[in-house]
Automatic annotation (TrEMBL):
Name under which the protein is recorded: Pilus assembly protein PilP
Species this chain originates from: Aliiruegeria lutimaris
Length: 83
C-alpha cells in the first residue's frame, strides 16, 4: 500500500492517533531532504525536518513512516498509525 493510501486509510479510522500526545502523521521528501508532519497534543500540525526541535526534542532521523527524537536517555521513535 502506498504511503498516501496508508495516511488516507488511517485518517478515517477511530482511535488510531492518541490525541493527548505528539503524533507522527506523515513523512515525505527525498532521501537527502526528508520532512515530517506531526500533530501536537494541542491539535496544531507542524512540518519539521532533520535537526529541528519538536516538543523540546531534537529530530535525529526521519524515515519512511517513522521519526526519531533525541531524549535525555537515548532516542524515542514515533511511527505513523498502522491503519
Amino acid at each position: 500500500m502506498s504511503e498516501n493510501k496508508t495516511v488516507a486509510t488511517a485518517a478515517t479510522q477511530k482511535n488510531e492517533i492518541q490525541l493527548d500526545r505528539l503524533a507522527l502523521i506523515g513523512t515525505f521528501g527525498t532521501d537527502a531532504e526528508r520532512h515530517a508532519l506531526v500533530r501536537h497534543s494541542s491539535g496544531r500540525i507542524e512540518k519539521v525536518t532533520m535537526g529541528e526541535k519538536v516538543a523540546g526534542r531534537r529530530i535525529v532521523a526521519i524515515g519512511n513512516g517513522e521519526m526519531f527524537l533525541q531524549t535525555g536517555s537515548g532516542t524515542r521513535k514515533l511511527e505513523m498509525p498502522s491503519g
